[in-house]
């Protein structure tokens, strides 16, 4: 028997709305949570229009759909993920099967390339494909094992149900980050810095995965339920603490040229959602740790992408530079429900730009007052002896809402994250 998908009835309304609009083939993503027993689909979002593609109406752009999935995956807190893809087309379901298979494998490959955690043995590797005929509204649901290149389509059960978004528990925590990443000689471009940061983040991610997670101040047995004795369908929130210890393995001393270092500092807010079908402490811990790893890696990557453009325009080097990754802002999926998605706000962006991205990426009509920007503070400039001395040599006043470059020859980068202050530093050695 195939997998079962319990689908929020709002998804049915969303797909029906697309079916009623005159258009060619429409693709999109299905978002929710997987479990060993069943999967829950809570959202669907269509692929944005690709204005640069001349054949957008004639064929499905696999790269465009995959890039959309990558961007959406960054906006999903712990417990929510891209479960698969859908296509709305008048073509026969059998004729679209090859296209859907290519899409779901391409999407999974791109998303997994950004994941720094180690896959667990109980991770669900089946992804869903859904074909909807806009005239008959008939749906055909199949799954593919994306970890098996030879996987064939398997039938799956697709059931709409009301209230799927209401029965979830929320586990959240705040975590201080303080990483120092040495840069090898001639690390003068953002791409090499990216490689150094990614390797160090992988080491840090392993420390996070080995960390001890306390839920409401207690270390719960893995198989225990975190909602024991609580009423069903009542919104529950839990506060967690993550205790991380450095790697105790001794590494042989190696002499290596170092041209500087990157310091990643700050405090971040993390949260994970668990469907209330007897959630275990082990699952809560796994989803929360993965969200911590993802949100830090996403911010650093977004900052590096931004700096790559800036470096092409600013060739001069400096001793100490401070950069400010974006802070995390949340938006509820439903006004009264526990589920939320997120976006990342740079210092020079307003909330209106975030509501625009929620519309473009997730097809959500969010208002500025719906956004929760209270969990993390905007990063602040860190003053030190080095930055103070460098600032006396700077004639122009610094704009506090933009990334400020402080120093002379490139050496130290400080990346300041968000809650307390999160930054990226480069410094001389």
TrEMBL record:
One of its GO terms (biological process) is intracellular protein localization. The chain crosses the membrane at residues 405-426. The keyword Acyltransferase does not apply. Keywords: Membrane, Transmembrane, Transmembrane helix. It is found in: Membrane. PANTHER family: PROTEIN ODR-4 HOMOLOG. This is Protein odr-4 homolog. It comes from Crenichthys baileyi (White River springfish).
